Amino acid sequence: MGILKPGLLLTAFVLTACGGGGGGGGGDNSTPPVTTAPVQTDNGNTDTTPEAPAPATAPVSLTTGGTISGWTYTTPEGREYVMRGTGISAGLVQTQRLTRDDRTPVSSTSWCCGRMSYTTFGTWTDFEKGQHDVFYTGDATLAANVPTQGTATYVGYGMREGTLSDARFDIDFAAKTVNGTIAGNETFGSEVAMQGNIANGGFTGNAQSGGQAGTISGHFNGPTAEELGGLAQFADTTKNASFGATRQ
Q: Rounded distance, CA 130 to CA 52, Å?
């Protein structure tokens, strides 16, 4: 069995690698900001009448594998990555790859996006086990500060196995609905269509990709819902995708 060697790849988009480095954590060595759970107050985003169905409760951060706390993601294999410090990100996507001494890939951790102020999302893949996980985190918008009137469009990206594809979300704050799409292509794979309902500062709902049904969970981020982040997950984990987008 070969020796494991970590390596860092910084990609300006997804297709071009820009240098290498050591493993154990991305970004700079600055202490990352601490994400704390906000006190949620009701501004009409939660229906508390006795006959109302239980509201969707979207977590501020979520992962299908490993753990996530603030801006730190710990993979299922126990490797810890600080995804954001106080400095400027070197690229849109950062990827840490673990390989053997014969360059056989073992696992890969990628996260995005340096251009977003309040949201980080990413993927982890174990090539030997065929395991595909996704995660997201952010500075959550208080439920009281999520708009309750009007509509908005959010534009950003979805990610699978470190590969990005364009994403768009149409939000109707009055109707409390989310409709999103991550575009399909040859490298990303099948399109992801999403429909959800807003509650408690976040949203949950359904997803479809490649003929398979799944679920979504996400949250608005920033002081007044400037961004959103979340993930879509499926029984076929190769279809799992994380996403982030900025209000236009």
A: 41
Cβ(154)–Cβ(228) under 8 Å?
A: yes
- Read off the pTM: 0.79
Domain boundaries 4-30+57-247, corresponding CATH code: 2.40.160.90
Q: Residue type at 178?
A: V
Identify how many contiguous H helices and E strands the chain contains and give both numbers.
0, 17
Distances, alpha carbon 158 to alpha carbons 33, 40, 47, in Å = 24, 28, 30
Indicate the SS3 state at residue 145: helix
Q: Which two tokens stand for residue 87?
A: 């400095």
- Rounded to 5 degrees, φ, ψ at 238 are -65, -15
pLDDT digits (tens, 9 = 90+) for 135-174: 999 999 999 999 999 999 999 999 999 999 999 999 999 9
Residue that the structure tokens 């196995």 belong to: 161
How far, rounded to the nearest angstrom, does the alpha carbon of residue 17 sit from its chain's CA centroid?
21
Structure tokens at 244: 């982030």
Cross-strand partners of 108? 97, 125
Predicted confidence (pLDDT) at residue 246 exceeds the cutoff of 90: yes
Handedness of CA 40, 46, 49, 54 (dihedral sign): negative
* Per-residue pLDDT reduced to its tens digit, 144-155: 999 999 999 999
- Domain ranges (residues) in the chain: 4-30+57-247
The pLDDT of 49-61, averaged and rounded, is 57
State phi, psi for 55 to the nearest 5 degrees.
-70, 150
Whether residue 203 contacts residue 178, with contact meaning beta carbons closer than 8 Å, is answered with yes
Q: How far apart are CA 60 and CA 210, in angstroms?
A: 28
Per-residue model confidence (pLDDT) at position 110: 96
Question: What pLDDT shows up at residue 119?
Answer: 96
